[in-house]
Write a structure and sequence with these properties.
This protein has 270 residues and is of the alpha/beta class. It has a single domain, classed as 3-Layer(aba) Sandwich (Rossmann fold), CATH 3.40.50. 36% of the residues lie in helices and 21% in strands. Strands 1, 2, 3, 4, 5, 6, 7 and 8 form an eight-stranded mixed sheet that branches. Strand 4, helix 8 and strand 5 form a beta-alpha-beta unit.
Length: 270
């Protein structure tokens, strides 16, 4: 299993690369990158609701670079409770905050939407987006990393995450943090990159390939195994997305890897 980075992997270099990339996306969302961005991409490739997207300021939506549609999990999955009014939601590495603002609109003024991100420029855009959309009293943006979330234990009804688990050198730590902050019965709505077969050791040892959201991607069956090892239940992939179609990343990856995005659901036991 590829749940941790190889021995002697340069995690600090990876974090620096990721921060530089997303700092640049925050400042220049129209620039050239290996991944798609923006509201039109979200609607066309990831099945986001076009009407919902019209309520999200461009400060947030222009910087969206997710690989799936985590909120669709609650909308389209039988037996899974959607976001409800009054719930507390955590967007785990929220970026510019598009998913967080959509969630905030759904949970209403009695709910709480917490966004955590390590990139200052992205947090600034998320704060601007929240204010412009009139959600400043609901949305709380915090500095932090997914290995050590600045959130109280058992305080969150739903954790949403979009395209960041693959960037974690130790995925056990990230999932343990998600489990810690979820209330008993709390749900995980996660979107991430997966591959058809495990990458070679050389590929998994390349921080630049990790920063491209590929080097640290799991084989899809490993998501379910990781959730179970952590103590979550009902873990399963529920939707798939060709999120790298027509990108530069697609051109440099072996076709038999079948790199794509998935929506993954799990929950904390009652």
């Amino acid at each position: 299993m590829a749940l941790t980075s190889p021995e002697n992997f340069n995690s600090n270099y990876l974090r620096d690369q990721v921060m530089q990339t997303y700092d640049q996306v925050a400042r220049q969302p129209e620039g050239e990158y290996h991944f798609h961005r923006g509201a039109e991409y979200a609607h066309t490739y990831l099945a986001y609701n076009k009407e919902e997207l019209t309520h999200i300021p461009s400060d947030s939506s222009d910087r969206f670079a997710g690989v799936g549609n985590p909120l669709l999990i609650g909308d389209n999955t039988p037996g899974v409770k959607p976001l409800s009014v009054g719930e507390t939601v955590l967007d785990h590495a929220c970026g510019g905050g598009m998913d967080l603002l959509i969630a905030a609109r759904r949970i209403g003024e009695t709910g709480k939407a917490i966004g955590v991100d390590m990139t200052k420029a992205m947090r600034q855009q998320a704060i601007k987006g929240a204010k412009k959309s009139g959600l400043g009293d609901i949305v709380d943006i915090r500095e932090g990393v997914y290995e050590s979330l600045p959130v109280e234990s058992e305080s969150i009804d739903v954790v949403i995450s979009n395209g960041v688990l693959n960037l974690a050198p130790d995925k056990h730590v990230v999932f343990n943090e998600i489990l810690r902050v979820l209330k008993p019965g709390g749900r995980l709505f996660l979107a991430d990159v997966v591959v058809q077969r495990e990458l070679t050791l050389d590929a998994r040892s390349n921080p630049d390939l990790w920063a491209a959201c590929i080097g640290g991607a799991l084989v899809e069956s490993e998501l379910t195994e990781l959730a179970a090892i952590t103590g979550m239940v009902d873990g399963r992939i529920v939707q798939r997305f060709n999120c790298f179609l027509n990108t530069s990343a697609e051109q440099h990856v072996a076709k038999d890897l079948f790199v794509h995005g998935v929506n993954f659901y799990a929950r904390k036991p009652e």
